[in-house]
Request: fold
Amino acid sequence: MTMRAAPALLAAVLATAPSGDGGAAPAALRALALGDSYTIGEGVPADGRWPVQLAADLREDGFAIDAPRIVATTGWTTDELASALDAAEPLGRDWDLVSLLIGVNDQYRGRPVADYAPAFARLLDRAIGYAGGRADRVFVLAIPDWGVTPFAAASGRDRATIARELDAYNATAARICADRGVAFVDIAPVSRARGAEPAMLADDGLHPSAALYAEWARLARPVVRRRLAGPPAP
Reply:
């Protein structure tokens, strides 16, 4: 998230993975992570981003998975992510795992949840398409409550209003996920409980540190592990 104008839509960060250690192992699973500053990990090194940490955790669980490709930029709203995906080269429909975390900048800019719902639903449908139509290979992370951060305290905005609006956004996203059979990982409670701790913050006092992203990865890990271990698509 950012409190300045969003950067140009073609400035998406596209992080590609190193390949495995060679040999006759089966092809590694391919992961795609879509989002905004929370997915690109504003203020943390590349290995501290939650999608990268999650991939490392899954490798510990025995899954051959590349580090994810990340399409995300600080400041993006739902419509800006959609426009960036339109402008990007074709991403294809053969991703083994796709994640989506988007909406905090919609909320920050004062957009009502009634506008967020259809925009989020369209992005989720695109994510399912990138996974070859397999909703079981897509998961969504909740939006964390930035209202607990020092940045929010200094901004003068009402923290209770921020919390209430983000709760409405997350409830809407969870419902849309349930309708489509997509896993929804609720990282909002841990972010709300620990998001103000100095060790859980990047230097800007707003974005999570690698330590808080590790908590997100910890919550997503069993959900994604079950999905990856499920039966193959018919």
